[in-house]
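Might I ask for a little of your time on a matter of protein folding? Here, with my thanks, is the record as I have it:
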Amino acid sequence: MIPFVYWFATNLTKVVLLPIYARVSVTGLENVPRDGPLIIASNHLNDADPGIICTRIPRTIVFMAKVELFRVPGLGQFMSAFGAFPVRRHEADLTALRLSNETLKKSLALCIFPEGTRSGKAEKLRQGWPGTGLIALRNDVPILPIAITGSGSLGLPFMFLHFYKRYRVTLTIGEPFRLPKPDRINAETARIGTQMIMEKVAALLPPENRGYYEYIEAPATSG
């Protein structure tokens, strides 16, 4: 990560880009731990999601992103300077696992999109892949569930054609939690851990957006 690149890109997005294309409302900001290692687990609708998260969450955030993006000339160099690192989806990527561990040992916030892909305009939650649960179990750090709605149409480069329309985007932040420690960390406990994480994310979404996790009910509110 190059601190100036992170600062410049985050502030450019916050002050210039997002106000043009989206009206972002945030709830649950008080749930964000201000320091210490943290895994941010969020659903993923479109390209604007990382910009929405890093401009609203008051932490320096390291993003795990699909390796295909790093192969795009210019974009790959920018993402590395921004502090993101690549992951090969749907396989055991030991390098990504090591970088995740190193990020958390530095007491930084690591943002993961467990679905591994965007859901786009459908905005339906997909099944999470077990890598997120594995990282959480190995590091035993707090997990912050986040749910985004309304950004399904904010994809590159087409979002720049819609400057006349500001999309209403919501960012709902849940309470941090830890996964219970299993006797052994293996493929099955990683799968169960990821399911628990995804259920926390799903509970923050409107019922029509819960997709694969439509069986989840939102927690009851007092009052």
